[in-house]
Amino acid sequence: MPTILLRLIGPLQSWGTTSRFNERDTGKEPSKSGVIGLLAAARGIDRGNWDDLEPMVRMPMGVRHDRAGIPRREYQTAGCNKDDTVIKADGTRSKDGVVSTRHYLADSAFLVGMEGNRELLDKIQASLQNPVWPLSLGRKSYVPSEPIWLDDGIQDVSLKEALSLWPWIVTKRSRENVPDRLLLSSESFDGSGSFRMDQPLSSFAERKFGGRYVQSEWIPFPAEGRDVSP
Asked: Cβ atoms within 10 A of the Cβ of 173, count?
């Protein structure tokens, strides 16, 4: 079954799966719910539309960590300091300021693959090139620095093969050593690996998520060569 490859590169990315209230987390790699949300935005699938979302949710996903990035924490406040007051939406005055901690990855780059039928992958590839809504990397303000779609981004090989063979998606920096291996995280279906609660089970309006297992392994640094199709 063919695989579509997505290039997720940006100065800031955040892929939280356990965020609650004012504490907004991020995982070390793109979450499946986050990537599905990105594809839904590209295709213009409304938050309440499960029929068009469900086929994408069924596709197995893998992530190659081309540049892991640096975990960072941002301290945000809203409201006022203790000597001031603010007017709330209901017209009353409040002395309560709000502190919100936001976690994110700085300077990270991921190659994401999803395996599915050719017709669906063609629709996704076309919509990424001409998205209905703006695309972002986990939060609306975290915009990609390069196009998410790739030339020849649909490969007629398995998910693991596509992620193993596609060339490194980042450019070597002057003081950077090219790694001799890359971390690959992919879904497992035998209960092995780490547990993630990021499998969408409903439309994003209903916000129901289930679990999946993700297994990580090191793969050799891919050899040069653009097209990995046989």
From this structure: 8
Determine the pLDDT at residue 141.
92
Please list the ranges in the chain whose pLDDT falls under 70: 21, 79-82, 86-87, 224-230
Residue 228: the pLDDT is: 43
Backbone angles phi, psi at 120, to 5 degrees: -70, -40
Burial class of residue 51 in the structure, from the number of CB atoms within 10 Å of its CB (0-12 exposed, 13-18 middle, 19+ buried): exposed
pLDDT of res. 227: 39
Torsion of CA 38, 39, 42, 46, to 10 degrees: -90
Tokens read off for 93: 């005055």
Q: Give kind and range of the element (H or E) at residue 98.
A: strand 98-115
Angle between helices 118-129 and 32-43 (to 10 degrees): 70
**Which 3 state secondary structure label does DSSP give 194?**
strand
The pLDDT of residue 174: 87
**What is the pLDDT, as a whole number, of residue 90?**
80
Helix (H, G, I), strand (E, B) or coil at 51: coil
Q: Are strands 3-13 and 98-115 parallel, antiparallel or unpaired?
A: antiparallel
126: Cβ–Cβ under 8 A, 6 or more apart, which residues? none
**Model-level pTM?**
0.88
Which backbone phi and psi does 80 adopt, to 5 degrees? -155, 170
Residue type, 59: M
Give 109: exposed, middle or buried? Use CB within 10 Å, 0-12, 13-18, 19+: buried
